Amino acid sequence: MKVKRRRQPHDRITLSDVAKSAGVSSITVSRVLRNPEKVSPPLRESILRIVDEMGYVPHFAARALASHHSGIIAVLVPSLSNYVFMSAMRGIEERARTSDLRIQYANTHFDAAEELRQLKLFLGQNPAGIILIGVAEHEEVRNLLARAPCPVVQMMDVSAPPVSLGIGIDNRAAAITATRHLLARGYRRIALLGGQPDLRNVRRTQGYTQVMQEAGLYDEKLILSVPTHTSIGLGCQMLEMLLSKVPDADAAFCQNDDIALGVLFECQRRGIRVPQDFGICGFNDLDYARAAFPAITSVRLPRYDIGYRAVDMVVRALAQSTDGPAIIDVGYSLMERETTAR
To answer: Residue 237 pLDDT > 80, yes or no?
Structure first.
């Protein structure tokens, strides 16, 4: 008589084991784990409860053989410590948590060579998808992404055509809105203060330039850019540099809120009244823009939503879903506050 082997403590619980216990097919269990929204809530909860009770853990190596990818979404980030990107990363992780995909980050440090190196390493791991926080500005990176055998989503700016999928805002349009707001408040010698010359900042510079030229107020001396990582301290220094070159400057459109807060601090140190004598508009609308005194006018973009929907675009592409556009402009809002309220 043949004796059935008892499961040993170290034996792996399989997808088939879960399906058998739940009385459903393996495909249904897989669908619950991969695309839970496609399964009715009662059945989904029942299967997830059995998954927990049995201690089932997906076998990623086996899945890679079956699905032709590793189950990893590779995310290339210019800076892991940047608050703007951290908000987007929270959205990325929240959406990935509802799927059976994992997230793996690489910090490219705003360096083109490092971005290329990390991308090559990721492609060697056969990723399920690639998310690039930023736009592929360099030809070799763009060519690699175009040949990638997986969905590719580019985040944050949609003014340039993405390689495949894209989500973000039109940074040029946002800068136009911000600059026109400063003009409407009566400011005329409006400076543009920025840092890293990436595509987002280039587009904002274009929007600012367009509005100032249309108003007959463009002066290249009012544009100040320092090609380095921005900080509050840099904002202080940039206002000092600006006023030494253009003492009659009466406002600043800052490429981010770090610079804007530094400008505000330097104005307070010098006794310059904000907003009466000098207006300040930031970008990104981080928490401290609202908490500052006076509160800083800033352009708000839905960073968390951008990250969340970027992963959703990967998931949908893997499921070969044709729902939704290839490029999503999530829009922006100008949060008018005290630093421009004159």
So the answer is: yes
